[in-house]
Write a structure and sequence with these properties.
With 235 residues, the protein is of the alpha/beta class. 29% of the residues lie in helices and 31% in strands.
């Protein structure tokens, strides 16, 4: 199996940490995030990985070149001369000739990659999106309005539940032909384009642990969850 890891962003919300390190090299326990991701992909049977790098990408290359995982997996690097978004880089990567994973390089998760790939194949999807259910606390009173703006209900600071993208995908190889090389494209725009053009987009909803390390608070939570049960993220 093959995978693409998106590791080119500047991680501005994680400053000052990312002033000197690319976000995929931030440590979780004793390991950088990207090594935890690679170990999980390796255990799932992924043998070929493309890492799309940009900001401080040379540090990622240097770290992994000195790591034994680079001897066990075929890791190549795709250098983004300019930011292409969370889907745009796929249009310029060669060799993606079978269903392949695409994921952000700043995620801590125990997702079952094999189950996700099997779901993709069983459903015949063009694109499969990893889905996590998340709750958002609304900090206002939410009103229900009827005819003539009559208030029919009042819910004080409710919790709303949403199906959210995990930033983990399985692409069928022909989707690559819909992505223009060297043109910016983010994942939401790609999903909407596929839906509009009647391609099948499926959601993989199997429950799992998942943390998007996008801000210091989530980084701290990831550190704690990993410390509590590191085996869950490394097996």
């Amino acid at each position: 199996m093959k995978a693409v890891i998106l590791a080119g962003g500047q991680g501005l919300r994680m400053r000052p940490y990312t002033a000197i390190l690319p976000k995929p090299l931030l440590p979780i326990g004793d390991l950088p995030i990207i090594e935890i991701i690679l170990r999980r992909l390796e255990k799932a049977g992924v043998t070929d990985v493309v890492i799309a790098i940009g900001y401080l990408g040379n540090l990622i290359q240097t770290y992994l070149s000195q790591n034994s995982i680079s001897e066990r997996m075929n890791i190549i690097y795709h250098v983004e001369e300019k930011p292409l978004g969370t889907a745009g880089a796929i249009g310029t990567i060669a060799g993606l000739d079978e269903p392949f994973f695409v994921m952000n390089g700043d995620l801590l998760s125990d997702i079952d990659f094999n189950a996700m790939m099997q779901h993709h194949l069983d459903t015949g999807a063009d694109l499969t999106v990893g889905v996590v259910t998340t709750e958002v606390q609304i900090q206002l009173g939410v009103l229900s309005l009827g005819d003539e703006n009559t208030v029919t209900g009042y819910d004080e600071k409710p919790k709303m539940s949403y199906a959210a993208s995990m930033g983990i995908y399985v692409y069928s190889p022909h989707v690559k032909s819909l992505i223009h090389p060297n043109a910016y494209l983010d994942a939401p725009s790609l999903v909407l384009r596929l839906i509009e053009e009647a391609h099948k987009v499926s959601g993989f909803t199997q429950p799992c642990r998942w943390i998007d390390i996008g801000n210091p608070g989530e980084y701290e939570r990831a550190q704690q969850e990993f410390a509590d049960n590191p085996g869950a993220f490394l097996q």
